[in-house]
Amino acid sequence: MLSKVAKFDEMGGVDGATRIPYEKLAKWLTSVEPEFLASRRAQAELLFRRIGITFAVYGSQEATERLIPFDILPRIIARAEWAQLEKGLIQRVKALNLFLADLYGPGEILKAGVVPSELVYRNPAFRPEMAGRRVPHDIFVHIAGIDIIRTDDDGFYVLEDNARTPSGVSYMLENREVMMRLLPDLFAQHRVAPIENYPDQLLATLRSAAPRGAGADPVSVLLTPGQYNSAFYEHSFLADKLGIELVEGRDLFVKDDIVYMRTTEGPRRVDVIYRRLDDDFLDPLAFRPDSALGVAGLMGAYHAGNVTLANAVGTGVADDKAIYTYMPEVIRFYLGEEPLLKNVPTWRCREKEALAYVLDHLGELVVKEVNGSGGYGMLVGPHATKAQIAEFAAKLADDPTNFIAQPTLALSTCPVSVASGVAPRHVDLRPFVLYGPNGASVVPGGLTRVAMKENSLVVNSSQGGGTKDTWIIDDAPLARV
Fold first, then answer.
1. Strand locations in 258-311, DSSP E?
2. Burial class (CB in 10 A: 0-12, 13-18, 19+), 89
3. How far is residue 30's CA from residue 317's CA, in Å, rounded to a whole number?
4. Structural domain of residue 385, as residue ranges?
5. pLDDT value at position 176?
6. How many structural domains does the chain have?
7. Contacts of 386 (CB under 8 A, 6+ apart)
8. 80-91 pLDDT, tens per residue?
9. Domain assignment present for 443
10. 266 in helix, strand or coil?
């Protein structure tokens, strides 16, 4: 069982002794003045403002769009430690793909009783339209963002899987560029694994996933809901980095089960769509008839095998937090292996005994909606009022199948540059996994998200959390971790 009280600092461990990967950063911090850090923070904010990186902070009274706070001190992970994490991530995404192919195919894992059938078929993200349908190369999840946490020196845990439309990679790339510009001397002291080739790897993954009849030069596009979407900056950023067209639904049309893009030179066939649009809005003929964001007939072209959607339709069922609790069993069922990454202990409120325990310990637990995201629809028991706890107790009693609960974890902390100096703040990590017919790869770093408020455990950017650059360094052995 995970400790609820242990406080593990990425730089100072549990005993305050500087961990090996952070030794150069710790020494560097003793050599710089507070005014220097303050000036670099101000310059970072100015750079991000000029770039135009914003995110919607729903419910904020300050503004609907604002800059994501950026911390100038990197999170550092030793290469040997990262290698272990990387293996676990690839194992998990491989199992997720086999799981989804099976759910929409023969359903062997359901027949075996490993995962309850009702948990899948009653899931709002399950798409019966995909039943019995094969997708190009049998790959459902081409891009995954797996949220990772650390609570002590016992390694990493998976907090949740993002297999639908994972976001954040643009902030990872921009963070690195800003760090190299603002702190070149600190960067030069470390052998940091590069991440700038991620767009090339993503494009190669998309091209490799094209339908088999697409030819040697398949055309890929990025489908966005439009400029009013909270992650539109990322959509335009990635399309530019990939060198592909950023399109909205109105830019595409379907004829004879083939997708075309409107261009000034006439229609051009599209083979791969990197879609940042939810299933519901993809095709008004198949899903929501009132959708003005999708492409009429797209599902017909998809079922005909003439276009690849990345990620595939129906992957959202794997994002479900109740399904998450079965991932260790899913890995064993399909791969015959023990999970390399552990799950956070979780109570399924749909089970009578688990529900009774959760109701008796609401003030100690974190309770989440199974289909929730962005930190919304959750209760953090130790930080909740009596009224909030009572409200959640009523919700649980009314619909227990909609919730899971987890211990209130003491997420690891990293040093953060704040107005008062350098202080610890809680963090998580979202590595990005690419999965295609030619295999899997993990960008060495990922997006570290930071709870910028003291003692806060909420790291989500949509609720005011910040980010920092993540360094995987080659010159730190796996010792004293």
1. 258-261, 268-269, 272-275, 308-310
2. buried
3. 48
4. 345-408
5. 96
6. 1
7. none
8. 999 999 999 999
9. no
10. coil
